[in-house]
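Example 9 (inverse folding). The structure is encoded as follows.
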């Protein structure tokens, strides 16, 4: 069939599609016929995506396609342009399988909705309806309900009385400013994309990462749970003190001091547990019942606040009659007497004593013996609520802090008392129940400004979350802040100081102090605050389990996964049970004033990290950071974060430390045990910025010797099934990483990247998996090149980044290098040695790597022997030290052997080396081995132990230029050659012979095969040899001397270190002439023969260890 190109043009409503089809007779190729027809259809399917909304009839283009391989078989296809592209290009078909169509993507985004984590019934009710809540019902009112709480009704008047108007106003202003700044930061985060249910936990975890998110999320959960305990305790306090005091199981009548306090706390514990059980049951049955009561609870809160403001207005017109009875300047408990007077006139005109007299005197008669303070002071009756126009504000401006048990007194009233007079009848006076101070007031008050996350928690139910959350939250905080600040001033302007400092209203007939101000009746506040606190407790018990469920479902903390399960209707049963148990801990504390600072810590920590997340995202200028809310700044976020941290330590420094320890422990647990999550968080962006900054700093110069640590490039090979052939290399890497340096594990693959990129990815995955198994922290890299030699070279050259590059290469000794089919392997190895030398990299070559210990093994005893023949910058000293930091080698002792010639002072060498190791802070035994000069020839041995010039890097093994010249001169001066047996041979034989030109090759072959030293005599004969023959002769002479050296060193090493767990040796450099590479491998083989574990070390040309601090 002839190849042809048929161009065709489709014109559909002004849309031009130009296409050209190459028909080559392939059965998968299609060609388009020139005739096109239109058909009207009422199909509601476009590209396989069903639209929820019905669309009007539309025109579809149908293209007839003919399959060339199947004859003239026509096929009808919908003429979506993407389908045309897919038939023209197989590549397009593959891309369409993975890339969603624009229409379907826009449709899914437009119809996106996420319900509040709640019951299944709520999901079913909203399944077919779009979110309908606006700013008022969805954000503003829920925030109002959550912010106004038990502290406003039970403790605000007491806070004003103790801290004074000025001090309390400062506390309120600080706390409200903190929440406002947090709301600004939260608004920026919430409007930077869709925020599903989960509120602050979701925002923090997605902004600061799973570790911070999990830690702060759990802290926020604990705060919400303890808030539930605080609300329950507040409700019980209202019940037992103001509503039904006689309902107490442990009666308070007749008790005083510690006994009365214990009875009250026990009552709180019993009733609190009962109320908690009831609330948990309601939540367990169904959250829909809680939602039905939400409006009632909200109405109670609003009506109570309005009643207070109405009462304030009324005090300016007609102050209520709430008298307070003072004895001297001491406030009396009004329930214990009926008349505020010592005596009163009876109906017959005589003076009779009152109940107050009987409280302080031993009899009702006028001549009775009475309490001295009662006798010396008068009883006065003052108005508890003088009114907003009375000018009492000036008296309440400053604070009055008490110790526990102090009398609540009016400092302006006259009082006569002796300095040393003991206080009697203390149960008749109003006393301070706790020691008060400024920071305590901060901790007690702060829970009253929490609840600002209520709007963000309902983001899935909002019609326009990105608009409603900022407006509603900021408006709610503004409203509540104005209410709180005005309350501080109005309470100080309307209520007498002793009444403000009377926490439980004992001086005003046991009435709730704020209730005495309310209009039309104190019961409006009492009943309203009781129901509002019950509602707030139910909300806490509803929200906290769902927060725990969200954390558990994210899988951040493995031990919490069980709490992600829910019952059939979607209720998180296990999370609810955990919440109830933790809430019971707060109830057992039984004191509202002690529970409030606990939850303050957790909320402040949560708000601090919300501010940190916003500041971090703003400063990093992440491309995805595009919040619709524009009225934010990183400085405001940092100010909010600083205020949160300050308030934490103001509230309670020890609670703050405990909260931080809890958060830090959770952070580390998630970091080491939790599931890895990639959420594009700001901490990762911060890490990238910090890494960039650090890399730029590293470029400023090479690291100092004191900062040197092995940055390893580990070269491994893979088999055909993508398994690492030398897994023990990574075990050795882990054992060497006490220096905590960089680790890059690389492998070389043969081929082209386009064809082998998937293989490279699988290789990297296999490397990563093995690194996790061996607990090696670092990076893995697979490089593909046309041959393995080039791929390895690329790894050496390009691994690392900037100043963070490897300075040492770890590669295994080629095991079967003598086999014919492994010839290229050992050649690649020798080239690798040359490249590391050229790149000034250290080289570590473990021999018999399979015999090296795994990370699970332990050596209970043994030695690590170092044979220090050539100074390599200290690598031989440093590596055993690093190995001994690991538990595998920890119990092994280090021995250092150095070689001395006959003319060296061995005793002095040992002494100098011992001193040197002492200054290096390395514990090792030292031994000096004496060898003949002929045993360690100049080719392989250089005198290195010169302590005065220790820092000088000596050249490795190769002869110097002067030594080569001396060698040639020796050859030219001699006319006979003598073969001398090695010293190990017991008898010496001398052979003299005439050399004939025709026997030259045989002579040199014999020289190579025999480990003898060759000496030549006969100047006329030598001059008759060509230059090439002379060089060949010298090379063979060097080979013989090298083998002789290897044999002698190997004998000595075997004698001293045959039982050592590891032997470290200097690794000589390869010859410059590549024709001697095989002899080089033979030399190393002979040198290490018979040793179980050997680590050949070649320095990188710089000092890596120093005696200086």
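The amino acid assigned to each position is listed next.
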């Amino acid at each position: 069939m002839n190849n042809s190109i048929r161009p065709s043009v489709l014109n559909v409503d002004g849309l031009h599609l130009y296409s050209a089809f190459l028909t080559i007779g392939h059965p998968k190729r299609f060609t388009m016929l020139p005739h096109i027809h239109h058909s009207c259809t009422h199909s509601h399917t476009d590209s396989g995506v069903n639209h929820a909304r019905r669309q009007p009839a539309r025109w579809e283009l149908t293209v007839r396609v003919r399959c060339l391989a199947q004859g003239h078989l026509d096929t009808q296809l919908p003429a979506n342009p993407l389908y045309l592209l897919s038939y023209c290009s197989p590549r397009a078909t593959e891309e369409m399988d993975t890339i969603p169509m624009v229409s379907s993507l826009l449709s899914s985004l437009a119809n996106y909705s996420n319900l509040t984590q709640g019951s299944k019934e709520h999901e079913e009710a909203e399944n077919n309806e779009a979110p309908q809540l606006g700013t008022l019902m969805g954000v503003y009112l829920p925030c109002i309900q959550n912010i106004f709480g038990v502290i406003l009704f039970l403790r605000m008047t007491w806070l004003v009385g103790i801290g004074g108007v000025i001090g309390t106003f400062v506390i309120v202003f600080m706390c409200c400013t903190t929440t406002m700044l947090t709301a600004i930061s939260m608004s920026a985060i919430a409007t930077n994309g869709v925020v599903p249910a989960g509120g602050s936990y979701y925002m923090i975890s997605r902004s600061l990462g799973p570790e911070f998110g999990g830690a702060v999320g759990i802290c926020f959960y604990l705060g919400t749970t303890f808030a539930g305990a605080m609300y329950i305790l507040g409700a019980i306090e209202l019940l037992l003190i103001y509503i039904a005091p006689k309902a107490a199981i442990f009666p308070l009548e007749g008790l005083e001091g510690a006994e009365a306090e214990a009875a009250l706390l026990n009552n709180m514990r019993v009733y609190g547990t009962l109320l908690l059980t009831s609330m948990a049951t309601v939540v367990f049955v169904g959250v829909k019942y809680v939602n039905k009561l939400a409006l009632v609870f909200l109405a109670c809160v609003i009506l109570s606040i309005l009643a207070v403001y109405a009462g304030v207005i009324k005090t300016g017109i007609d102050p209520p009659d709430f008298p307070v009875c003072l004895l001297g300047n001491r406030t009396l408990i009004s329930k214990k007497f009926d008349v505020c007077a010592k005596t009163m006139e009876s109906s017959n005109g005589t003076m009779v004593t009152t109940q107050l007299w009987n409280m302080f005197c031993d009899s009702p008669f006028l001549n009775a013996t009475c309490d001295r303070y009662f006798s010396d002071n008068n009883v006065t009756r003052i108005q508890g609520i003088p009114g907003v126009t009375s000018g009492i504000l000036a008296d309440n401006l400053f604070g009055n802090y008490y110790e526990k048990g102090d009398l609540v007194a009016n400092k302006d009233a006259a009082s006569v008392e002796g300095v040393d007079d003991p206080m009697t009848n203390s149960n008749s006076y109003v006393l301070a129940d706790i020691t008060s101070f400024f920071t305590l007031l901060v901790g007690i008050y702060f829970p009253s400004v929490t609840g600002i996350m209520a709007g963000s928690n309902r983001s899935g139910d909002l019609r326009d979350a990105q608009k409603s959350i900022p407006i509603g939250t900021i408006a709610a905080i503004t409203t509540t802040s104005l209410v709180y600040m005005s309350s501080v001033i109005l309470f100080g302007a309307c209520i007498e100081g002793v009444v403000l400092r009377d926490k439980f209203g004992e001086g005003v007939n046991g009435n709730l102090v704020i209730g005495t101000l309310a209009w039309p009746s104190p019961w409006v506040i009492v009943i309203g605050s009781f129901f509002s606190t019950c509602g707030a407790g139910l909300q806490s018990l509803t929200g906290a389990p769902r927060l725990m469920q969200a954390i558990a479902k994210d899988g951040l903390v493995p031990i919490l996964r069980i709490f992600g399960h829910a019952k059939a209707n979607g209720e998180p049963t296990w999370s609810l049970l955990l919440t109830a148990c933790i809430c019971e801990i707060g109830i057992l504390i039984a004191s509202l004033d002690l529970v409030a600072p606990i939850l303050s810590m957790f909320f402040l920590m949560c708000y601090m990290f919300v501010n940190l997340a916003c500041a971090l995202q703003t400063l990093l200028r992440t491309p995805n950071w595009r919040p619709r809310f524009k009225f934010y700044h990183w400085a405001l976020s940092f100010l909010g974060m600083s205020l949160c941290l300050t308030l934490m330590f103001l509230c309670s420094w020890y609670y703050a430390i405990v909260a931080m320890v809890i958060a830090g422990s959770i952070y580390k647990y998630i970091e080491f045990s939790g599931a890895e999550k990639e959420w594009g968080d700001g901490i990762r962006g911060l890490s990238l910025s910090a890494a960039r900054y650090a890399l730029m700093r590293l470029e400023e110069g090479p690291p100092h010797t004191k900062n040197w640590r092995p940055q390893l490039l580990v070269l491994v090979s893979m088999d055909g099934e993508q398994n690492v052939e030398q897994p023990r290399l990574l075990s050795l890497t882990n054992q060497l990483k006490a220096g905590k340096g960089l680790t890059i594990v690389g492998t070389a693959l043969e081929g082209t990247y386009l064809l082998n990129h998937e293989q490279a990815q699988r290789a990297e995955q296999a490397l990563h998996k093995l690194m996790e198994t061996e607990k090696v922290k670092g990076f893995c890299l697979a490089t593909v090149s046309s041959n393995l030699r080039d791929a390895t070279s690329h790894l050496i050259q390009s691994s690392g980044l900037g100043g963070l590059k490897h300075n040492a290469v770890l590669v295994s000794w080629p095991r079967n290098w003598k086999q014919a089919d492994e010839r290229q392997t050992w050649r690649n190895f020798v080239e690798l040695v040359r490249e590391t030398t050229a790149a000034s990299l250290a080289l570590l070559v473990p021999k018999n790597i399979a015999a090296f210990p795994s990370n699970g093994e332990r050596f209970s005893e043994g030695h690590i022997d170092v044979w220090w023949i050539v100074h390599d910058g200290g690598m031989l000293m440093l590596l055993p030290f690093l190995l001994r930091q690991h538990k595998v080698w920890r119990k092994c002792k280090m021995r250092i052997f150095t070689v001395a010639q006959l003319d060296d002072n061995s005793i002095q060498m040992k002494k100098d080396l011992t001193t040197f190791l002492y200054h290096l802070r390395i514990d090792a035994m030292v031994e000096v081995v004496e060898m003949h000069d002929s045993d360690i020839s100049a080719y392989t041995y250089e005198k290195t132990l010169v302590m005065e010039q220790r820092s000088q890097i000596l050249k490795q093994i190769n002869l110097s230029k002067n030594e080569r010249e001396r060698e040639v001169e020796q050859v030219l001066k001699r006319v006979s050659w003598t073969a001398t047996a090695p010293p190990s041979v017991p008898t010496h034989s001398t052979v003299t012979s005439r050399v004939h030109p025709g026997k030259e090759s045989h002579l040199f072959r014999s020289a190579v095969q025999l480990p003898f030293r060759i000496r030549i005599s006969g100047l006329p004969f030598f001059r008759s040899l060509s230059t090439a023959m002379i060089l060949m002769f010298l090379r063979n002479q060097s080979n013989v001397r090298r083998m002789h050296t290897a044999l002698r060193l190997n004998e000595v090493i075997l004698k001293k270190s045959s039982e050592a767990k590891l032997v470290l040796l200097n690794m000589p450099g390869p010859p410059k002439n590549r024709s001697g590479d095989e002899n080089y491998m033979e030399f190393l083989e002979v040198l290490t023969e018979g040793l179980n574990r050997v680590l050949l070390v070649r320095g990188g040309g710089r000092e890596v260890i120093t005696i200086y601090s």
